[in-house]
């Protein structure tokens, strides 16, 4: 059983570690912490962290909530959802996802959405099991 709670500034090291696992790279810690603190201070962001029975951080979900013209309503977008590889397949991802859905509903959102890389086939299966539908195409262009 895990505890899911709102992340705080004290969770920065754990969230940084989980984000680095998600993206399989090491991010600049100072830049990460500056952005993380800004998000924690903003009502447009909701970061939840999952702790195992020992209190260790084993997962997190980060959601941006904003009003979108093409919905004429508030929409939640999952920007990051990650579970530590050693804690996967135990329902933590499901619990984080459902906690994110509840947070989005509580914020008055009419929809929750996300983008995921084409190569993350396991994530695609997970999100479809959670009831999400693949119905958009997403394009990117590097600016650096």
Summed up, what is this model?
Helix content is 33%, strand content 26%. It has helices at residues 12-23, 29-40, 92-106, 121-129, and strands at 3-6, 45-51, 57-68, 73-83, 111-114. The longest helix is centred in the last third of the chain and has 15 residues, at 92-106.
For the structure shown, list the relevant keywords.
single chain; 144 residues; alpha+beta; 5-stranded mixed beta sheet; 4 helices; 5 strands; 33% helix; globular
Question: How does the overall form come out from the CA principal axes?
Answer: globular
- What strand order characterises the main sheet? 1-2-3-4-5
Give the beta-strand count: 5
Radius of gyration, whole Å: 15 Å
What structural class is derived from the secondary structure elements? alpha+beta
Number of helices: 4
Average residue pLDDT: 93
What can be said about the biggest beta sheet? Answer: 5 strands, mixed
Distance N to C terminus = 42 Å
Order of helices and strands: EHHEEEHEH
Poorly predicted runs: none
Report strand %: 25-35%
Query: Percentage of helical residues?
Result: 25-40%
Multimeric state: single chain
């Amino acid at each position: 059983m895990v505890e899911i709670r709102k992340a705080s500034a004290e969770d920065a090291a754990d969230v940084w570690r989980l984000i680095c696992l998600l993206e399989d790279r090491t991010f600049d810690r100072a830049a990460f912490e500056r952005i993380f603190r800004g998000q924690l201070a903003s009502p447009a962001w909701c970061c939840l962290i999952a702790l195992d029975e020992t209190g260790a951080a084993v997962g997190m979900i980060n959601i941006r909530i904003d009003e979108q013209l093409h919905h004429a309503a508030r929409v939640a977008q999952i920007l990051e959802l990650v579970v530590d590889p050693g804690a996967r397949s135990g329902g933590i991802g499901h619990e984080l996802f459902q906690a994110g859905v509840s947070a989005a509903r509580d914020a008055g959102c009419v929809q929750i959405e996300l983008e995921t890389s084409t190569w993350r086939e396991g994530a695609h299966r997970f999100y479809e099991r959670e009831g999400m539908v693949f119905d958009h195409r997403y394009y990117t262009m590097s600016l650096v």
